[in-house]
Amino acid sequence: MLSILRNIVQEVNAARDLQEALRIIVSRVQEAMGTEVCSVYLLDPASNRYILMATEGLYQESVGKVSMGHSEGLVGLVGAREEPINLEDAPSHPRYRYFPETGEERFRSFLGVPIIHRRRMLGVLVVQQRESSRCFDEGEEAFLVTVSAQLASVIAHSEATGAISGLSLTGEETKDICFSGVPGAPGVAIGTGVVVYSTADLDAVPEKAAENIEQELELFRAAVQTVREDIQRVAKRLSSQLRPEELALFDVYLSMLGDKALPGEVDARIREGVWAQGALKQVVKQYIRHFEMMDDLYLRERAVDIRDLGRRLLSRLQEGEEKNVEYPENTVLVSEEITPAMLGEVPKGHLVGLVSVKGSSNSHVAILARAMGVPTVMGLVDIPVNQLDGKELVVDGFEGQLFASPSSELRAFYQEICDEEAELFRGLEALRDKPCETTDGHRVALLVNTGLMTDVARSLSHGAEGIGLYRTEVPFMIKDRFPSEQEQREYYREQLEAFAPNPVTMRTLDIGGDKALTYFPIQEENPFLGWRGIRVTLDHPEIFLVQVRAMLKASEGLNNLQIMLPMISNISEVEESLHLIYRVYHEVREEGYEIHMPKVGVMVEVPAVVYQIRELAERVDFLSVGSNDLTQYLLAVDRNNPRVAQLYHSYHPAVLQALVRVAQDAHSVGKPVGICGELAGDPGGALLLMAMGYDSLSMNAASLPKVKSVIRNVSREWAAQLLEDVLLLDSPHVIKSCVDLALRNEGFGRYLRPARSSSAALAKKTSA
């Protein structure tokens, strides 16, 4: 059964569209189970009805025509209960619904299983048999459940592809197709999708038509000839080292490149109007599917050769491809995984939104997006990225939703939100030079998180009182090697000068987890619990010492530097780091630099540190909570995994209790404590943190005006009562609702996400 299941999944994965995928499913399942009928009913989001989309055994004329309400008939019952239903005599069941156009009156045994993807009901997979005495056994039921679970994501992906193309399940034109991910950066963007993808990745090749068929043919033939010559060259070079039977493998490659083999089929697809890279992708995937389905192990392994050959050809095609991507004025950048380098490719002022399949609201790119004020949606699992190129898109960074091909009504609704946000910001500009002080005189320092020089001007214009977190890894990530001491010194000096005399807190290099350097790869099964942050730099003192030396030299004459150590989990790491910092300080002084010893603090990110605050505070000058990592470690949720993103919640009672404890313990020994996680940039979260006693709140520049406005218009006593109330609650969602309600009652409803109008709510939902 495992072999049969693997073959079905592989064949369905290679299907060109949803209809072909469904035909493959019903045909292969009917054959594997030896049943007379196999059918797939899909739940149409537009009509909320189950539609017969494919069948083997029922009348084909009924496909696409037979439908039933979401709770109607046995199919509806399977969907409503979300579990299998296995009946010997289906017609005798009170929920049985007879459709004469299907011819199903001949079949009495019924087994239906739900098709569910990420908690969303997609449809029902049904098998039927003529004999009433036959009840599908447990093994058959388990097989069908397994098939359903394996195929759910394939169906969701194919359904989404059709939706983006503008067609519903019934073939009708669709608008306002909505894909749900997770919010990455707040705001709304309306623009044109520009898909960027990795080179030599067949899966990432977008589907598009050939603009010039003859030119595409010429490009492909040149690529084939180049790859053929490469293989011949390698074979010749290795001929003296390999036996004849081993050299024969190169002949296999060359035979695959014959005119009547793979190139001939790609040639035919190009002539049908597909661009060369897309045609190559289609043919190679078809070859791989055929080889992987073969029973013979040797032949099955040839799929690896086909994949390798496909990548070689694609690489050559991309060498001859124009690398200049056109970025329209309102670019919505779309990719499987957006990187900082991709952001840098878009001309200044053209980037309005980001859409990424991988990542979550706390991944590094999402943090950069918030710093840049670019609305972002992350974690759009199973969305067909390649279909979004050139499409008009609406990015809703508040709700984590992406709309493709918006109607004029939906576009107007979101344009109104854009205008409201711009007007709100203009109204908050007057607060720039005013202190962040409650109505009863409690003062809180508002700082910013930065990493790019582009953050500086925005931070200063928003009234930042300093930098609570400068991400020093950003200069490391935009290079193809470690930056030199002088290069680092220049980066750091810019930040220190821009904010002098206000403090600038620089976090030492924090790589690992979700922050990778291409030239210093860290491959681990669980990177968030692995070699990251201070663990890396203490193991590589040559990196740490150079960085600290660059920081100290950059601070000469300014003396507003503070150094912060990330990912501390025990006292010995702090003591070892301090030893190295003091060593560099004395060395730099001996070189003639007039500098002061900077304050040194630690980040509270690891749960173990929550219980060592007093011991740590005796050794350092300040503490700063990194609430993003602390939250993910407390809740055991990988913040970059969209499948569990809904479990990550900054308002979780355990998180709030930990934050209260940290603030109390730090103040009990007389040390200041700040916070530089995303919770600080949320108006409601900022109120709770202020009530807990945090001395400084560090956030992205875009969040600063709203936070300052809220704090300046409430008393600390009011915020303390709110904190006391929510600490009695046991649900993060209830806590968030309670805080939002309190803000609305105080007149700050305009700072929360505007409620969508009933007309916009009619948008068709396709969960990605």
List keywords for this structure.
eight-stranded parallel β-barrel; 768 residues; single chain; eight-stranded mixed sheet; Beta-Lactamase; EC 2.7.3.9; sugar transport; 26 helices; 15% strand; GAF; globular; Glucose Oxidase, domain 1; kinase; phosphotransferase system; Enzyme I, Chain A, domain 2
What layout of secondary structure does this protein have?
Elements: H1 2-13, H2 18-33, E1 37-44, E2 49-56, E3 67-69, H3 73-81, E4 85-87, E5 109-117, E6 120-129, H4 138-164, E7 177-180, E8 182-185, E9 188-195, H5 213-238, H6 244-256, H7 262-271, H8 276-292, H9 297-319, E10 331-335, H10 340-345, E11 351-356, H11 364-372, E12 376-378, E13 392-396, E14 401-404, H12 408-428, E15 445-450, H13 454-461, E16 467-471, H14 473-477, H15 485-499, E17 504-507, H16 534-539, H17 541-554, E18 561-565, H18 571-590, E19 599-604, H19 607-610, H20 613-617, E20 622-625, H21 627-635, H22 653-668, E21 673-675, H23 683-692, E22 696-699, H24 704-712, H25 716-726, H26 732-745
Parallel strand pairs: 9-10, 10-11, 11-12, 15-16, 15-22, 16-17, 17-18, 18-19, 19-20, 20-21, 21-22
Antiparallel strand pairs: 1-2, 1-6, 2-3, 4-5, 5-6, 7-14, 8-12, 9-13, 13-14
Helix pairs in contact: 1-2, 1-4, 2-4, 5-6, 5-7, 5-9, 7-8, 8-9, 15-17, 17-18, 23-24, 23-25
